[in-house]
């Protein structure tokens, strides 16, 4: 038998909704109560208030729209967020088999009635009264009304609810065409497993569009709504097939398909091809995507992320993210299964987060090691924090050529560093007296705690905060040593301020957000920055930070880039190597990198650094691009003859002169004479500040000018200063702790020793 078109239908004589209710009630009462009076009054009371219901509300009811998140290219789908799986489509996007099967099974006279089916009602009443069972009599329109306008009364099985349902169904039919009602029904009905609508069901069970369903597949889906759990093929294939065959029988008896088509479809094996949605809705780059999800949910209260049908365009660059993932994973694999890495890359020109890696396996742990979300709370960044002390000193007018006491150990007045808690450099190496610039390059703990105390902890803390550090930090003596927890997101954001010449942009992962109608509701395409440092101070800081990468004694030499691109940065290591960091900048990108055991059970290998990860990552990001220079400026106006005798900053103490040793300076780590592949202490992954590869020698100083190298021609060398002896690159100075132990994710602020130099350089 040839299939007849579902569009061929008779004209329908319309009835007023109240008349329809009276009509049905009168017949029912004639059958059941034989002449009962008061039908009119009863009907009026039951439908009270229904006239005030605007049936057009159904267009926005029970049709929650999923929100989608994209990368900066606007095409790479990162996530789809929804409370329920829904995907409304047009009638032409639905297979005729679905439409015909639904009508044949749920409401065979759909195109003949005006909202209710009196024949069906009488048949159901007869079956019920005779005790032959129960039979439904709800039309497709009534079912839709029940699921939307009367959803609060769905579990009420009284005659009153049925009459209210009929009343609104007739109003619906007066307002909408049959095809419109059928489409709304097919887009909202429950197909099981939290899936609503035929398109979402087609994707869930068969991974195809509703327009592409075969007859057997369409019949299987049509059969599910009658009992979404019992007829669910995931739970019982037998029940699903039994219901499918019933649908096929009704399609055949109603003339939609031939007997041959029915028999062939019933004999067909039902093969599922599930497309199970992520339980989180996240499809790619889960640490970045969850970070944006939480930010949107918390910061944009007018937006309903899970029902609003939003289109979120993020700032993530796919190529940059892939480079970050590859660099972090390669390093992780070379260390230990317990070690995880994190990386944040920010565009200094606007604060856009271009890449974010927050952990090793999102399914195993949703703690975001880059943002601190999920219970992470950040990690110690070690001597990467010394950058803020450097900037604070420059703002105070202290020249980077100012001499600072870097001897070790150090008994510093009015700090917790005393007696057996004496502050030390790495391996207690004595760096003697040297410029702030060179103290930064080797990451001297003693020198930078003295500098911090000279300018004031509050000043250092305020500088860090205005540059982008938002964690609640205490003004402890160990502040400059980075023993307190911060996030790599904060560090990348703060360092970006220097790369951008002193202008700070808040880290921003969201570019634009559109509502479901395409209206722009959030626009961060033109962010406003705030100047927090003078261009002169930013320039001076960057010039000092370059020495970490570009000089032989710098602790981050492995961060140098092969194309000659200028790099500035700072290494960091925490107590006993439980955390290592490298924060580096170029004019194009600010990057913060961390490695460690998130559970603090396993320390990192000694002398391991993260600067080589920066080089791997940035080499990929900048491949094929010409080198760019940092913003330039004149030097700040420095104080003349700055001298703080209390903390030995600017103060010069004569020492015994030693012979001078000259060491060549190179920007190429491969050319460094200390890069011995057979010696792990000289392989480019040494301790920050640990310039001498043999600490047992106590790093005897150079003769002659020692550390001065022209910084102060009147200052003799220091016998305990290793001078220009180059350190192995890549690590940081974790110092020496009298009571060593792992740094916890939330360290207790030091009371007696303030960090005693145990926190990295």
UniProtKB/TrEMBL annotation:
Pathway: Cell wall biogenesis; peptidoglycan biosynthesis. Residues 651-761 are annotated as: Disordered. Residues 341-578 form the Penicillin-binding protein transpeptidase domain. Residues 77-251 form the Glycosyl transferase family domain. Residues 651-670, 698-723 have a biased composition (Low complexity). The chain crosses the membrane at residues 21-47. Pfam families: Transgly, Transpeptidase. One of its GO terms (molecular function) is penicillin binding. Residues 737-750 have a biased composition (Pro residues). One of its GO terms (cellular component) is outer membrane-bounded periplasmic space. GO terms for biological process: cell wall organization; peptidoglycan biosynthetic process; proteolysis; regulation of cell shape. The keyword Membrane applies. It catalyses: Preferential cleavage: (Ac)2-L-Lys-D-Ala-|-D-Ala. Also transpeptidation of peptidyl-alanyl moieties that are N-acyl substituents of D-alanine; [GlcNAc-(1->4)-Mur2Ac(oyl-L-Ala-gamma-D-Glu-L-Lys-D-Ala-D-Ala)](n)-di-trans,octa-cis-undecaprenyl diphosphate + beta-D-GlcNAc-(1->4)-Mur2Ac(oyl-L-Ala-gamma-D-Glu-L-Lys-D-Ala-D-Ala)-di-trans,octa-cis-undecaprenyl diphosphate = [GlcNAc-(1->4)-Mur2Ac(oyl-L-Ala-gamma-D-Glu-L-Lys-D-Ala-D-Ala)](n+1)-di-trans,octa-cis-undecaprenyl diphosphate + di-trans,octa-cis-undecaprenyl diphosphate + H(+). Keywords: Carboxypeptidase, Cell shape, Cell wall biogenesis/degradation, Glycosyltransferase, Hydrolase, Membrane, Multifunctional enzyme, Peptidoglycan synthesis, Protease, Transferase, Transmembrane, Transmembrane helix. PANTHER family: BINDING PROTEIN TRANSPEPTIDASE, PUTATIVE-RELATED, PEPTIDOGLYCAN GLYCOSYLTRANSFERASE. In the N-terminal section; belongs to the glycosyltransferase 51 family. This is Penicillin-binding protein. It comes from Muribaculaceae bacterium Z82.
